[in-house]
Amino acid sequence: MGFANEVSEVSEKIKDAESVTVISHIDADGIASEAVLRQAIARCGIDVTSVFVRQLEPITMKYIPDNSSLKVFIDLGAGQQNLLEERGLRENEVVIIDHHVSQDVDTPYLQVNGLPYGYEKLSAAGTGYLVSKQIDDYNTDLAKIAVVGNVGDMMAREHCGLVGPARGIVEDGVECGNIEIVTDDLNCYGISTRPLHYCLSFSDDPFVPGITNNPSGAQDLIENDAGIDLKKRNGKWRVWEDLSPEEKRTLIGILALRLHSAGEPTKRLKAEHYIFPDEMKYTPLRNASEYATMLNACGRWVKPKIGSSVCCGDRGEGYREAEVMLRHHRTVIREMMEYILETGVTELSALQYLHVGDRFPDTIVGIGAGMALSKLNWKLPIMILCYLPDDPELIKVSMRTNERMVQAGMDLQAALMKAAEAAGGGGGGHKIAAGAYIPRSAEEGFAESVNRILEKQSS
Predict the structure, then answer these.
(1) Pairing relation of β-strands 426-429 and 433-439?
(2) What DSSP line would sit under 83-111, residue for residue?
(3) How big is the CA angle at 143 (ends 142 and 147), to the nearest 5 degrees?
(4) Do 435 and 428 meet the contact criterion of CB atoms below 8 Å apart?
(5) Residue 66 is assigned to a structural domain of this protein
(6) DSSP-assigned states of every residue in 193-231
């Protein structure tokens, strides 16, 4: 049929609906997806409501309303179509907008998914935006939120910037006036809010010896090697966005020399950033990656609708609540990372793992795992297992690796899906980050099972 035809058919199906229920995921991409699609649908004068779910699974299907509305599943659904069939949802009642591997079922549900067409770096929010733009060209102002979803789902990580259709969405935002592209900039997180030396020290892609995980080393490099002031005249810390082009070039050059001296490649030192000029400076909404973290905080602490309200323009009570969740989110993530490092992981030949029990919420274990990985053996993907508070019969599994290992052939999604299905569960995600749910009875030996699959990938 073709990707463009799928986009067109889905948009027409939505426009013809009398009412729509949007069912989405609770991560940054899912929240951004829902916000983009809900606004586009509402602008058509169509009655629209939303439902957020942690994951589409038997226990969460009860939240799908039993009414005559068109059910639009976004950022989920493609890999769980059997659940839609089991629920009795007919072909004309469902639309799926997703970017995960699709499942073969008897019912030919209408869906749009860039994956079969080679668009591996297009998130659900990006796909939902293309549908929204097809609904009405006026919706190009929603490109900004789609970019947040794309970046939040790590679509920019491999190429240090968005590519393909996702890059086209950025250009829509530039034309609309709510996105600025900063090219050849430092590949780091926190460019709008973190003090400069912390921004550099938290950067681990690439890992810079003496700087990564070393704030004092970063401070010494900035002040002594580069001769750059860390503070403004008013005494406040400078952030990366405060630096002049010349100061940025100086720091990037010194970091490149550090990498070269250590025999490390420098190609990942620079990246593309997406700044939102309509947002206040020094706030998490100023750039795509920090905006995505705020949405993740809202979702992981079970308030995705707050994140959605921020995406839809709430800069009052909703934004203040999101800020509180972001601070709490960062505190707990830091505590989890420290726990992982203090407790230690079990290393196998192809992975490292730890079971945290019920010590941390299942919604954040993947994020904590990703942060801890930079301080562990980066050549081994990390797997964290935990219990679920609302289902004592299941275990949540989260895995993370880095871009270097993905380029070497590692595929966490494939490994975790295969191992989880063999254990009577299910999994999904991406090559660099994946998750699964397995029965508690399958816990023993599960890590070894995943390890064997990863061994074969590297052989």
Answers:
(1) antiparallel
(2) HHHHHT--GGGEEEEE-SPPPP-SS--EE
(3) 125
(4) yes
(5) yes
(6) TS-HHHHHHH--SS--TTTTT-HHHHHHIIIIIS---SB
How many independent structural domains does the chain possess?
A: 2
Q: Is 10 a domain residue?
A: yes
Can you give the CATH number for the domain in which 14 is found? 3.90.1640.30
How many Cα atoms occupy the beta-carbon half-sphere of 335 within 13 Å? 11
Q: In sequence order, which ranges of 177-316 are alpha helices (DSSP H)? A: 196-202, 215-220, 245-261, 288-300, 304-311
**Dihedrals φ, ψ of 90, to 5°?**
-85, 165
Last residue of a domain, one of 94, 121, 145: 145
* Residue range(s) defining the domain that contains residue 430: 344-458
The CA radius of gyration of the chain, in Å to the nearest whole number, is 22
Integer Cα distance of 299 and 28 in angstroms: 7
Q: Which of 125, 145, 165 finishes a domain? A: 145
Q: Which residues pair with 349 in a beta bridge?
A: none
Scan for tokens 């934004």, then name that residue.
Answer: 319
Is 77 within 8 Å of 96 (Cβ atoms)?
yes
pLDDT tens series, the chain, 459 aa: 799 999 999 999 999 999 999 999 999 999 999 999 999 999 999 999 999 998 888 878 889 999 999 999 999 999 999 999 999 999 999 999 999 989 899 999 999 999 999 999 999 999 999 999 999 999 999 999 999 999 999 899 989 999 999 999 999 999 999 999 999 999 999 999 999 999 999 888 888 999 998 999 999 999 999 999 999 999 999 999 999 999 999 999 999 999 999 999 999 999 999 999 999 999 999 999 999 999 999 998 989 999 999 999 999 999 999 999 999 999 998 899 889 999 999 999 999 999 999 999 888 888 888 888 888 888 899 999 999 887 788 899 999 998 888 888 999 999 999 999 899 988 888 889 999 989 999 999 999 999 999 999 987
pTM, whole model, 2 decimals? 0.90
In a domain, 293, yes or no: no
DSSP string covering 131-168, please?
A: HHHHH-GGGGGGHHHHHHHHHHTTTTTTTTS--THHHH
Instruction: Give phi and psi for 38, each to the nearest 5.
Output: -60, -40
